[in-house]
């Protein structure tokens, strides 16, 4: 069973949605380093994005606590009795406070951009996840995260439109893939996001299509013909995206499609790191 503090700690880790939080934070940090940001800026990006992700994960399980109890989601830490919704609420606002300070330390423009992205994720948790606009916070927040990292980098640069578009496509693809395992439970509690409206089969096709589109943009977006590395990375991303789609259709309750979607994001960021001269351009 373990002690009460140990149970709470396990609950906080589980409620943080640790895997996507680590991936998103790692990708933003890696991109900041690839853009030539000094070590202090890279550390601030990691802190701002990491605490922002924690606030989003904890607020999600806090806001969804009653819904999770209603459908018996024993995989959720509140339902499992590891942590209370009140504790998650306090931790979410605590992480958000650190996120605000770290974001603004990156500069007004970069910080404000990141905070808008985090606000979009909170809006998803609070309301938009239950509407046909559920995809919008993912598109906006992923796109704005790319903008934030470029604005925080040295020099008066802005992100290339193709890089922002690729990040937005990755975000929406990840959203659709992540929603698929819980479609029935969500519908039972009144959640009708875009994947729910489209249905499992259509969403199972849409998720890999969006991920493929993101990979295609990353391969073809930079100036000049794609390199061998770009083609190889694009091919790997395509295989992963198609595997996500196939798994979503054949194993409806599997979380693998979301993991595969995050793997596509990793590949795309590696390709972005190979094209830093084209990601950030003069305003």
UniProtKB/TrEMBL annotation:
<feature type="transmembrane region" description="Helical">
    <location>
        <begin position="160"/>
        <end position="181"/>
    </location>
</feature>
<keyword id="KW-0472">Membrane</keyword>
<keyword id="KW-1133">Transmembrane helix</keyword>
<feature type="transmembrane region" description="Helical">
    <location>
        <begin position="92"/>
        <end position="123"/>
    </location>
</feature>
<keyword id="KW-0812">Transmembrane</keyword>
<protein>
    <submittedName>
        <fullName>4-hydroxybenzoate polyprenyltransferase</fullName>
    </submittedName>
</protein>
<dbReference type="GO" id="GO:0016020">
    <property type="term" value="C:membrane"/>
</dbReference>
<feature type="transmembrane region" description="Helical">
    <location>
        <begin position="202"/>
        <end position="223"/>
    </location>
</feature>
<feature type="transmembrane region" description="Helical">
    <location>
        <begin position="256"/>
        <end position="277"/>
    </location>
</feature>
<feature type="transmembrane region" description="Helical">
    <location>
        <begin position="135"/>
        <end position="154"/>
    </location>
</feature>
<feature type="transmembrane region" description="Helical">
    <location>
        <begin position="229"/>
        <end position="249"/>
    </location>
</feature>
<dbReference type="GO" id="GO:0016765">
    <property type="term" value="F:transferase activity, transferring alkyl or aryl (other than methyl) groups"/>
</dbReference>
<feature type="transmembrane region" description="Helical">
    <location>
        <begin position="21"/>
        <end position="49"/>
    </location>
</feature>
<dbReference type="Pfam" id="PF01040">
    <property type="entry name" value="UbiA"/>
</dbReference>
<dbReference type="InterPro" id="IPR044878">
    <property type="entry name" value="UbiA_sf"/>
</dbReference>
<dbReference type="InterPro" id="IPR000537">
    <property type="entry name" value="UbiA_prenyltransferase"/>
</dbReference>
């Amino acid at each position: 069973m373990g002690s009460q503090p140990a149970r709470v700690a396990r609950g906080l880790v589980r409620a943080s949605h640790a895997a996507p939080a680590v991936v998103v934070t790692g990708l933003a940090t890696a991109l900041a380093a690839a853009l030539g940001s000094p070590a202090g800026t890279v550390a601030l990006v990691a802190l701002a994005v990491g605490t922002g992700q924690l606030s989003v994960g904890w607020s999600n399980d806090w806001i969804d606590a009653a819904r999770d109890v209603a459908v018996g989601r024993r995989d959720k830490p509140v339902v499992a009795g590891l942590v209370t919704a009140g504790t998650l609420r306090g931790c979410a606002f605590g992480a958000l406070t650190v996120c605000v300070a770290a974001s603004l330390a990156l500069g007004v423009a970069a910080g404000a951009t990141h905070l808008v992205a985090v606000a979009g994720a909170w809006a998803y948790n609070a309301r938009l996840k239950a509407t046909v606009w559920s995809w919008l916070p993912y598109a906006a927040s992923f796109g704005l995260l790319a903008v934030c990292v470029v604005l925080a980098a040295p020099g008066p640069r802005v992100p290339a439109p193709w890089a922002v578009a690729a990040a937005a496509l990755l975000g929406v693809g990840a959203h659709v893939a992540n929603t698929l395992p819980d479609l029935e439970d969500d519908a039972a509690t009144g959640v009708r996001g875009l994947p729910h409206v489209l249905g499992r089969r259509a969403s199972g096709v849409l998720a890999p299509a969006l991920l493929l589109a993101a990979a295609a943009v990353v391969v073809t977006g930079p100036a000049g013909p794609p390199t061998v590395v770009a083609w190889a990375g694009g091919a790997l991303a395509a295989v992963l995206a198609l595997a996500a789609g196939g798994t979503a259709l054949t194993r409806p309750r599997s979380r693998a499609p979301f993991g595969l979607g995050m793997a596509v994001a990793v590949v795309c960021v590696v390709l972005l790191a190979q094209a830093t001269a084209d990601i950030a351009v003069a305003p």
